[in-house]
Amino acid sequence: MAKNLKVTQKKSRIGEKPKARETLRSLGLKKIGQSVIRPDNPQNRGYVQTVRHLVTVEEID
């Protein structure tokens, strides 16, 4: 398993349900094209699963 996940927002949060908007905020994403590096753990995997239609994910070491 990778040590970190690079999460990049690809679509807007406008028009999304509040849970998806809050999940993006919890990941630290504020605008399209922004990327964050998060530890690869079950909590962050769950966040990514919730907003999988709005982000892309890369596993990095």
Outline:
This protein is of the alpha+beta class. The chain contains 2 helices and 3 strands; from the N terminus they run E-H-E-H-E.
Summarize the structure in words.
This protein is of the alpha+beta class and 61 residues long. It has a single domain, classed as Ribosomal Protein L30, Chain: A (2-Layer Sandwich), CATH 3.30.1390.20. 31% of the residues lie in helices and 28% in strands. It contains two helices and three strands, in the order βαβαβ. It has a three-stranded antiparallel β-sheet, with no helix packed on it. Helix 1 packs across helix 2 (42-50). The radius of gyration is 11 Å and the shape is globular. The termini are close together. The model has no long low-confidence stretch (mean pLDDT 96).
What letter string, H or E per element, gives the SSE order? EHEHE
Strand order of the largest sheet: 2-1-3
- The geometry reads as globular
Biggest sheet: strands, sense, closure?
A: 3 strands, antiparallel
CATH class: Alpha Beta
Number of helical runs? 2
Count of the domains: 1
Mean pLDDT across all amino acids:
96
CATH topology name: Ribosomal Protein L30, Chain: A
Q: What would you give as the CATH superfamily? A: Ribosomal protein L30/L7
- Report low-confidence residues grouped into runs of 5 or more: none
Radius of gyration: 11 Å
Strand content: 25-35%
Structural category is: alpha+beta
Total number of strands: 3
N-to-C terminal Cα separation, in Å? 9 Å
What is the annotated CATH architecture? 2-Layer Sandwich
Helix content: 25-40%
Subunit structure: Part of the 50S ribosomal subunit.
Protein name: Large ribosomal subunit protein uL30
GO biological process, one term: translation
Pfam families: Ribosomal_L30
